[in-house]
Design brief:
The protein is 11% helix and 34% strand. By secondary structure, it is mainly β.
Length: 954
């Protein structure tokens, strides 16, 4: 769209009702819609999945439907972050932040600006953003009697000065956009509230001479011109003026003058004495009074695209949100086809929302505390950050337990402990917190295996039936237990090159004699590392601070796998562009290939060093910006093989300041394509050295195929430009002569032990980006766990598991504390451990540092018992001692909180500690008000306490 920047479905209670909708439509030849599933996800709210087939090609369609007759259903906008409109985030984060049970993306916006929406945002009667002055755009509205409308909305704003002069306010919290018949900011006055963002608009490109006036208590309190945006206190607002708008403000207002503003939103349908309560901007009308429209203007968003839409029933009491997936896994639809779809779904009136890469639907299925993404975003890209969305809410109060169900895998391997996990919901379809350890677990036959609380260890292979009982409710699962003959060990990388003190994760799989690879658990495979190389913790290596080469050795029973490991890298010059031949130019789409070129420089053109650089001229103007556009500079007739085993590259680039994305394209030994990010945007106009890291898992030798420019989908950046490249260097492993091998311990034919949480290496640097843990999705502490992981305070128990519900040992918790406060890293403790028993190597530095500081004193018998699971009481005592010694803030005001019901059961030595942490909000009781002093702490609980402490230290 010209100048308009748009931005695993799990039905847990699936009815699996499959039928084809029998709603004839005159223009729908070749279109069929089949319902795949339907499930209730909240009071009056249902989640549905359809298969849409048009011309023999199918698309996935996701729909949420809400009944406004239900008193617990609410429909309204989600926007920004923490109420700041231009602090864009993806739909999932917006929905989870506001507690929505379902949401879709809504309005259009400019990706090359902060991201204010073009349309309206009204939240419970408060105007967050006015409707842009764009004809024929329709918005979602909810009246104060809970009737939904689809309406073309308007905005009229004015201000009056003390001398009686009046002026038009063009908009509220708007960035520059193109109204239908005007300019949004040229010679205009706009108004900005604290909902806009951390600052007002300020002086922007093309409007450098604008003026801003801060109004507090209806009086002008500050004036500035040609400066960045102003901070806007709550309750105040900023008047922004340009050209004649600026002249009016400067002529009629000065500091201390009173200002009167009037802001009015109108609808194109009569609403009588009702009031608009919630609203969010949309786009073109799709269905009007039960009829699907045709020949809908696409405004350059043509073809089969992912689409988002909303609709309402004739009485305005049913609301539909729909997303059509495409093109990664689905065909996608045109706007006319989207109109037909909404009509068949039952919409009497419907309108389009932003589509393409912005199309996203999330929903919170039963038992979960957070939403999940249902559709695959366009081209498989990450969810786009957008300013607004439309959401459904379940406002029902907590109810009694209605149901629980298993969430863990139903397959395991003989001897491997399996943690049984569950999710539950109440009588109002809200998540219900149910601790799996409080469920009574049994196996059908005692010989099948044993339970330790909710951890089951199978003793035979085959199908084993396990049952969980809670308050008279029983649920059964059939576990498939295999005992495969393993023939090999597979590791996710054939070698590792690490920077000093860097931590990398890896995956390990076991190859059975028959069948597919089996993911290995950290307690199944023995891992060791050449002494002096660093530490290995589960499936994670933390390099030491000395350059060295060696091996990672993995042993499973009698099978051994050796993986080369190098600590230390060096940058080596590789190519100065002087002797490149066979350069060529390619584009996506290919029809614009004739509008650009890739060649070596000639005399007078920029060169960094030596005699030649390469010049990439691109011009995307001949292709629609509805899709991503790419200009490739191919470095030869075939990809150029890179020497050695590089893990990164540097290249000098002469930017054009146009803001496009720069990347490199690799091809590995398996002919798999990888991409290297060099610069997110070209915001410079001279030589600049860029650095990019090669993705993990590349198979060597690796080749460099292209340097290229990307114009992201729906970009409004200038489509034409020139970028030069010169002097490429490669980051290579440091070489050593005959690295010492690591000794391999003789395998012991012992059963796989019951797992305990994998210890955290010390110290841990910031975790690598892109790691996804499958066992924390929807967990109550998901955000905390990810934050602590990213800070290097905790590590995963495997490549994809963080183990939030695993118990924590005393040694592990002290290690978490050490990672959080940096004791051993800042000043390594000296002396010997003062305890009679041994402390595992991973925890020795942490425990010694804590002991020297008087934070841990051990047991009465003089032992420390590092491998003993820590209780909530012990944990509270350690944290409180640390805070008393300055590692925390005990000056935080005491809260008025209900007394813990079992406070009398807290051991006397920790009574003060528990109380101090509880009244300040560092620790909490359970949902029934009990502290549970003897309960073993989980990783999630332990990390949450430390997270709370660190937050207060900011």
């Amino acid at each position: 769209m010209n100048n308009l920047i748009r931005k695993a479905f799990a039905a847990l209670i699936a009815m699996a009702i499959i039928f084809t909708l029998q709603m004839p439509y005159a223009g729908a030849a070749g279109l069929s819609l089949t319902k795949i599933s339907e499930s209730q996800i909240g009071e009056g709210t249902f989640l549905l999945k359809y298969n849409l087939v048009i011309g023999g090609r199918s698309s996935n369609v996701f729909v949420t439907r809400a009944d406004l007759n239900n008193p617990y259903v609410e429909v309204g906008p989600v926007y920004g972050t923490q109420g700041k409109l231009t602090a864009r985030q993806n739909v999932k984060k917006m929905a989870d932040e506001k507690g929505a049970i379902a949401a879709v993306n809504a309005d259009f916006f400019r990706m090359d600006r902060r991201g204010a929406p073009f349309g309206i945002v009204m939240d419970k009667g408060k105007l967050v953003s006015s409707m842009g002055k764009i004809n024929n755009w329709y918005s979602f509205g909810l009246l104060n009697d809970k009737t939904a409308i689809v309406s073309h909305m308007t905005f009229n704003g004015s201000l009056q000065t003390p001398d009686g002069a009046t002026a038009v306010i063009q908009g509220v919290n708007k960035e520059e956009y193109n109204p239908t018949n005007d300019k949004s900011h040229l010679n205009k006055i706009n108004l900005y509230t604290s909902d806009f963002g951390t600052t007002s608009l300020g002086a922007i490109k093309g409007y450098e001479d604008s003026v801003e006036m801060l109004v507090m208590n209806d009086q002008v309190s500050a004036i500035q011109a040609g400066k960045p945006g102003m901070a806007i206190p709550q309750g105040g607002y900023v008047l922004w003026g340009h050209g004649t708008g600026k002249q009016f403000l400067m002529s009629h207002l000065k500091i201390g003058d009173a200002v009167t503003t009037t802001l009015q939103t109108g609808t194109d349908i009569p609403i009588g004495d009702k009031q608009l309560y919630n609203a969010v901007g949309g786009h073109m009308l799709l269905v009007k009074e039960g009829k699907a429209l045709t020949n809908i203007p696409s405004n350059s968003i043509g073809g089969n695209q992912p689409r988002t839409a909303f609709g309402i029933s004739k009485d305005g009491k049913t609301v539909y949100m729909a997303v059509v997936e495409g093109p990664t896994k689905s065909r996608g639809v045109t706007l006319d086809e989207l109109a037909q779809l909404m009509s068949q779904l039952g919409a009497y009136n419907a309108a389009n929302f932003d589509g393409g890469g912005s199309s996203t639907m999330v929903a919170r299925t039963l038992g979960n505390t957070q939403t999940s993404v249902l559709n695959t975003p366009k081209l498989g890209e990450p969810m786009r950050s957008v300013p607004t969305g439309l959401a459904f809410f379940n406002t029902a109060p907590p109810g009694e337990l209605a149901n629980f169900f298993f969430t863990n895998d139903n397959k395991t391997v003989l001897g491997r402990p399996l943690t049984m996990t569950v999710a539950a919901y109440d009588t109002h379809y809200n998540p219900y917190k149910l601790d799996p350890a409080s469920i009574t677990w049994t196996a059908a036959n005692p010989a099948d295996g044993t339970f330790n609380k909710n951890v089951f260890t199978p003793k035979r292979s085959g199908t084993i039936q396990v049952t969980g009982q809670y308050n008279g409710m029983a649920k059964t699962m059939n576990l498939s237990v295999t005992d495969p003959e393993i023939t090999d060990i597979y590791v996710s990388s054939a070698s590792f090159t690490l920077h000093q003190n860097e931590t990398v994760n890896f995956n390990v799989s076991l190859k059975p004699k028959t069948g597919s690879l089996l993911p290995a658990a950290a307690d199944q495979v023995k891992v060791s590392l050449t002494p002096g190389l660093g530490t290995v913790n589960g499936f994670s290596i933390t390099a030491g601070d000395v350059e060295k080469a060696g091996e990672l050795v993995l042993t499973y029973k009698n099978i051994t796998k050796r993986i080369p490991v190098t600590v230390g890298t060096k940058w080596v010059p590789w190519n100065n562009m002087d002797s490149l031949t066979g350069l060529s130019y390619a584009t996506v789409p290919d029809n614009i290939a004739g509008d650009g070129s890739f060649r070596q420089t000639v005399e007078g053109e920029p060169v960094k060093d030596s005699s030649k650089a390469v010049r990439l001229d691109y011009n995307f103007a001949g292709a629609s910006n509805a899709n991503t556009r790419i200009a490739y500079g191919r470095l030869g007739a075939a990809p150029v093989v890179l020497p050695g085993k590089p893990i990164g590259m540097k290249v000098w680039a002469y930017g054009d300041g146009k803001g496009h994305w720069l990347r490199a394209e690799l091809l590995d030994a398996n002919k798999k394509v990888y991409y290297v990010d060099l610069a997110n945007e070209t915001n410079w106009t001279d030589w600049k050295e860029l650095e990019g890291k090669f993705p993990a898992g590349v198979a060597y030798p690796v080749s460099l195929r292209s340097l290229y420019v990307v114009d992201r989908e729906d970009s409004t950046l200038e489509p034409q430009g020139t970028v030069y490249f010169d002097e490429i260097s490669l980051e290579q492993p440091v070489t050593f002569a005959n690295p010492a091998p690591v000794p391999v311990p003789a395998p012991a034919p012992a059963p796989v032990p019951t797992p305990t949480p994998t210890p955290t290496p010390v110290p841990l640097p910031t975790a690598p980006a892109g790691v996804k843990f499958t066992d924390i999705k929807g967990h109550w502490a998901e955000e905390v766990l990810l934050s602590m992981y990213n800070k290097g305070i905790v590590h995963g128990v495997s490549q994809t598991k963080l183990g939030p519900n695993l118990p924590v040992t005393r040694g592990q918790f002290v290690t978490f504390m050490d990672n959080a406060y940096g004791w051993s890293k800042a000043a390594p403790a000296s002396g010997k451990l003062p305890f009679k028993d041994s402390v595992p190597g991973y925890a020795q530095a942490a425990v010694l540092a804590a002991a020297n500081k008087g934070i841990v004193t051990g047991m009465p018998d003089g032992t420390f018992q590092a491998d003993k699971p820590i209780t909530r009481t012990e944990m509270a005592a350690m944290v409180h001692k640390a805070m008393v010694k300055g590692y925390g803030d005990l000056s935080v005001p005491v809260r008025q909180r209900a007394k813990l019901k079992d406070s009398a059961s807290v051991p006397s030595y920790a009574s003060d500690s528990v109380n101090a942490l509880y009244v300040r909000g560092y620790m909490n009781g359970d949902e029934k008000g009990y502290f549970n002093p003897k309960k073993v702490a989980t990783r999630a609980e332990a990390l949450s306490i430390l997270y709370n402490v660190l937050q207060k230290l900011k």
